[in-house]
């Protein structure tokens, strides 16, 4: 018999930005579904009305779009499905797998004070229906009291929970609102979710949710609880470790392709492969490759992965990434003139840059306009003697073929005629072309700027 198509989901709460751990969870679900021709669905768990905001929802959607994760269909609002959650709870009560509980919060608190470290046992679980008062009630799951609930987890292995340690959880509150634990199960069932891939902080929830599945006679999905991300010190990732929001990494100039590669390797492996593209990730990703130990965020590794992807990108893709980065960080877009000067330099710049800001810094010579304003160090390189040499160089380059070998030959001849090595005239040329003393090769800059712009900047420096 053919297996049902894979359906995964990402279900964030819209109470803030998209955490990097949530981004990795979304990526794992996306890779697993896309690699098997399945569906990747998005559910916004917005039942916390006090903290859930449209702005936070949009921030999450924007983060997923930036990361390059597309989802199938429209995002599902959990809050909008409250009546369906209530309907299922009432059906369970009719079937006897749930029951009304009239216990007040004060009574529950008093019971727990007398029975510390024990799950609450409602006195209404087996009460005679004739004794039920005409009062508001919660609906509780009639959970098994004996035996165990076993979760066959695709990552953690077999995990066993004693049923006498789990209480009859509330499905529907006395005000008619569903609880998160109940809503999640109903939503996952109705959405046809076959694989639930999420953080291992939800592992205990899986036992309670499995009981709701069983009470309704629904097939249990495959659970895969992945270890959380820790900082370099081995502690749970927090703001003290640096950036924890996905938007912060976008603002730091890591390309989305690099983040997909790096996040995929945080807790998952495919042999010794460290660097790979999306097609390879989709083909290779499997739950068996996820380890049980927490992954550690390593900025040095991220920079290495980022550098690989910057170097491997096509010029068009890189320019798209740059445009997105500038927009996200509130910087003006590149002008047609800047693009015309920067594009020829990309082949060189992307070999020397690990992030987009580094590439823009390396390519600054192509982005500035005449007259070039040298910084103090560069200005010091433009003394009277150096300006004279630049004048000779400008004259000699008027009719040269604008190719690297020819440019190098002219520069070498001018240097030798002044009794200098080529390196000695490079500093004033850098100052003239870029206003800096640390730049790409002077010949790479000349080729990117073109004849007219190069000669104009050299002439400006000698004026």
TrEMBL record:
Organism this protein belongs to: Paracoccus solventivorans
Protein name: Glutamate--tRNA ligase
Gene this protein is translated from: gltX
Keyword tags: Aminoacyl-tRNA synthetase, ATP-binding, Cytoplasm, Ligase, Nucleotide-binding, Protein biosynthesis
Gene3D superfamilies associated with the record: 1.10.10.350, HUPs (3.40.50.620)
Task performed by this protein: Catalyzes the attachment of glutamate to tRNA(Glu) in a two-step reaction: glutamate is first activated by ATP to form Glu-AMP and then transferred to the acceptor end of tRNA(Glu).
InterPro entries the UniProt entry points to: aa-tRNA-synth_I_cd-bd, aa-tRNA-synth_I_codon-bd_sub2, aa-tRNA-synth_I_CS, aa_tRNA-synth_I_cd-bd_sf, Glu-tRNA-ligase_bac/mito, Glu/Gln-tRNA-synth, Glu/Gln-tRNA-synth_Ib_cat-dom, GluQ/Sye
Origin organism lineage: Bacteria, Pseudomonadati, Pseudomonadota, Alphaproteobacteria, Rhodobacterales
EC number: 6.1.1.17
Subunit structure: Monomer.
Entries under PANTHER family matching the protein: GLUTAMATE--TRNA LIGASE, GLUTAMATE--TRNA LIGASE, MITOCHONDRIAL-RELATED
Domain of life from the UniProt record: Bacteria
GO biological process: glutamyl-tRNA aminoacylation
Motif placement: 'KMSKS' region: 236-240
Family recorded in the similarity comment: Belongs to the class-I aminoacyl-tRNA synthetase family. Glutamate--tRNA ligase type 1 subfamily.
Domain Aminoacyl-tRNA synthetase class I anticodon-binding: 335-461
Motif ('HIGH' region): 12-22
Glutamyl/glutaminyl-tRNA synthetase class Ib catalytic domain span: 6-303
